[in-house]
Specification:
- The chain is an alpha+beta fold.
- It has two domains: 285 residues, Rossmann fold; 120 residues, DNA Methylase, subunit A, domain 2 (DNA Methylase, Chain A, domain 2), CATH 3.90.120.10.
- The longest helix is centred in the last third of the chain and has 23 residues.
């Protein structure tokens, strides 16, 4: 089987591309990266520097015509987590639009307008997606599953924490794969028992094995009308109906709570640290230490709003400095810069306490060393990229597993 052609949306600095191309089974034929609120398109510059400018688009995806996007086998991307509610619109003959500026609807538009739809989809998001918005938990994910069902896709999803499978960072994200009607893997999923698929047969459990919790699987149908679904899903404001593992075929959801099953080698924070030539500005100044300790420590205090309203504020303490004999905490976008912060990583070394270098943050996401190093790109910006990025090792393993499944099921059909 030849390489699958990939279209990469919301490409960032190329985490999806790295993971998929590491398997040698995928080739990116078109990519798009656009940062709306900034003049300098830093992530796009890094992407072009690493992969070349050919077939790379640095325009707002909402303005890119579907006809400009070449046909592809698999559409991938880590799209922003927003509010996905839908509204009716008389002006729109289809009667349906998502909120303007919500990038999920750009994916929906491309898929609905493509004559040759991609057979496979592979997306990533924060796991909060399963329980947002807070006043209608799970509605956003329900809207996405229903809209993919309407376009002819069956979906399987899994929440994966990279550290639970031996990777160097505790980063929990939802990944989902979708298969178009007519693809062999779609037929296979449709015929299979949903629980068997989630635990034994599917692409996720092949890449990241799981054991099942005692809880029974939950099944329910999604309302066929997107607007009704958007307005009424989980109006009771209970817990989300979506668990960390699940599938959706023809609008019927089966979901299950699973636990990771892994006993391989584990990478710790200490394994990725640079030993020598650390620039002096990364060491924490003695005079700043009390501020770091205060921010990292537990607090119970009375604070005031700008309007003068007083309220009780409390938070627990963080491990300070970070534990070296564990995988690291999640990198967030505010990781860069010298100023003391509750969330930045700080490690104890023989020469004192210091922050993490950009190359160390890249290693925590399993990027190649200095992938984001480029003239004009500050260390703080490189840290920001890693706060936004995904763990390349997860994409690589899921990509390899997906390719194996596709090949295996196609062979079965041919025989």
């Amino acid at each position: 089987m030849q390489q699958l052609k990939v279209c990469e949306l919301f490409a960032g600095v190329g985490g999806f591309r790295l993971g998929l191309e590491n398997t040698h089974h995928y080739k990116v034929v078109w990519s798009n990266q656009w940062e709306p609120s900034t003049k300098m398109q830093h992530a796009s510059l890094v992407y072009e520097a690493r992969f070349g400018p050919e077939n790379h688009s640095n325009f707002n995806i909402e303005t890119v015509k579907t006809s400009e996007i070449p046909d592809h086998d698999i559409l991938v991307g880590g799209f922003p987590c927003q509010d996905y509610s839908v509204a009716t619109s008389l002006k729109n003959s289809k009667g349906l639009i998502g909120k303007k500026g919500v990038l999920w609807w750009s994916i929906y538009r491309i898929l609905s307008e493509k004559k040759n739809k991609p057979k496979y989809l592979f997306f990533e998001n924060v796991d909060r997606l399963l329980k947002s918005p807070s006043n209608q938990r799970g509605r956003d994910f329900a809207v996405m599953l229903r809209s993919l069902s309407d376009l002819g896709y069956a979906v399987e999803w899994r929440v994966i924490n990279a550290a639970e499978y031996g990777m160097p960072q505790r980063r929990r994200r939802i990944f989902f794969l979708a298969y178009l009607k007519g693809a062999e893997i779609y037929q296979k999923l449709k015929k299979n028992n949903p629980v068997d698929w989630m635990l034994k047969e599917g692409a996720f459990c092949d890449a990241f094995p799981v054991s099942v919790s005692a809880q029974k699987p939950v099944s329910f149908d999604l309302d066929k009308d997107l607007v009704t679904l958007s307005e009424n899903f989980n109006k009771e404001k209970g817990l989300s109906s979506f668990l960390n593992t699940g599938i959706c075929v023809d609008g019927k959801v089966t979901t299950l709570k699973t636990a990771p099953s892994f006993d391989g080698k584990r990478t710790l924070l200490s394994d990725i640290l640079e030993k020598d030539s650390i620039p002096s500005e990364y060491y924490i100044d003695e005079s700043d230490l009390p501020k770091w300790e205060y921010l990292k420590g537990s607090k119970k205090e009375i604070r005031k709003t700008k309007a003068g309203f007083e309220y009780n504020y409390s938070e627990g303490s963080m491990v300070f400095p970070d534990a070296l004999d564990q995988p690291s905490r999640t990198i967030i976008t505010g990781e860069g810069g010298k100023s003391p912060s509750r969330f930045k990583h700080v490690v104890q070394t023989s020469k004192g306490l210091r922050r993490l270098l950009p190359v160390e943050l890249e290693r925590l996401n399993m990027f190649p060393d200095n992938h984001t190093q480029l003239n004009g790109i500050s260390d703080a910006k490189r840290a920001f990229f890693m706060g936004n990025a995904l763990v390349v090792g997860i994409v690589e393993k899921v990509g390899a597993s997906l390719f194996r499944k596709i090949t295996e099921f196609e062979k079965q059909v041919q025989n």
